[in-house]
Every structure is written in C-alpha cells, then in structure tokens.
Design brief:
Strand 3, helix 1 and strand 4 form a beta-alpha-beta unit. The strands form 2 sheets. Strands 4-3-5-6 form a 4-stranded mixed beta sheet, with helices on one face. A two-stranded antiparallel sheet has the order 1-2. The chain is α+β, with helices and mostly antiparallel strands and about 180 residues long. It has a single domain, classed as Glutaredoxin, CATH 3.40.30. The protein is globular and about 40 Å long.
Length: about 180
C-alpha cells in the first residue's frame, strides 16, 4: 500500500481519503495543544498560507499519547488552533500514532522514514534525557517520540523526509519548498 491508499478520520465523523492529495506535497504532523512545541502551529500556518496555492497541504493529526498534552474533544482542539493560531489547514480526529491502537497511516509513515535522532539544542537534550525513562530502546525503533513529528510526502506519494519536533522549522520550510 502507498500513501494514497489510506484514509484518516476527520472531525465530523467522516473520512478523508488521501487520494484527494494526489499530485500535492503533504506535510503530516501529529500535534498537541499543550506542548512546548505547540507554537510550531504558527510556522505551519505561515507555510500553509505561503505555499498552499503552489500545492502544499498540511494534515494536522492531533494525538494525546505524549504526556496527555492534547486534552479535550476534537471540537475544543479545533477551537484552540483557530483562535490561537488561525489555522486553516485540515485537522483530523484525535488518534494514536504508536502502539496497538495506532492508525494504519502512521504505521506506514514510520516504515518509510524511521527515527534518525533529535539533532542539537536545548529541547533535543531534554527529550534525550526524558525518553530513556519511557522507552529505553527509543533510539532503535521507528516510533513517534513526541508531538509535532512531521512527515513530508512528495507529489507522487513518496515519504521523502521525517522531521522530529526539535528540527528547526526553517529546515522544514526549506524541504517543503524544494519538494514543491
């Protein structure tokens, strides 16, 4: 199966068929409303505004698996994002991205692009200190490590990059521009 073969639940009780994104560049992001990385919504929305007309789609998939940082209903999450960050990109139903209850799309994304490290910086150091207590084997498995992990999908449906939440958003933007 490829990227376009998947569907994800939307916030209205339906499904979003990823075939609708064929020919577009897609950034898939597991998000949270109460995380240190939540301000990335601002830069995501700026990218969406700048590049949507050129073929960028951002797929916002809230997840509450990381320290319970996405409380609330889908409606409350959507309200938070639109009021605080004026987000206009599609937001899906809150789901699990790891474990037995993960949605199939995330199993696929992680098979295509595994974990490659956090890079440098204060937040990277914080995650490197914290994660061994949660998952001693975290460096060797492809699981999502935290909120705001991003997968970049090219116009042909290939998963071409994975960005951990610690990746500078300027680097993400540069990769999106190159894919467009």
């Amino acid at each position: 199966m490829g990227f376009y073969d998947y569907k994800v639940a939307d916030t209205k009780g339906g499904e979003k068929d990823l075939k609708d994104f064929e020919g577009k560049v897609v950034l898939v992001v597991n998000t949270a409303t109460g995380c240190g990385f939540t301000p990335q919504y601002k830069e995501l929305e700026e990218m969406y505004e700048a590049f949507h007309d050129k073929g960028l789609e951002i797929l916002d998939i809230p997840c509450n698996q990381f320290a319970g940082q996405t409380p609330g209903t889908d409606e409350e999450i959507h309200e938070f994002c639109t009021l605080n960050y004026n987000t206009r990109f599609p937001q899906m139903k809150k789901v699990d991205v790891n474990g037995e209850t993960q949605i199939p799309l995330y199993r696929f994304l992680k098979e295509q692009q595994g974990f490659k490290g956090f890079g440098e910086g204060k937040m990277a150091d914080l995650l490197r200190d914290m994660l061994p207590k949660i998952d001693p084997d975290y460096e060797k498995n492809p699981e999502i490590k935290w909120n705001f992990t991003k997968f970049l999908v090219d116009r042909k449906g290939n998963v071409i990059a994975r960005f951990e939440p610690t990746t500078d958003m300027a680097e993400v933007r540069k990769a999106v521009e190159a894919a467009l």
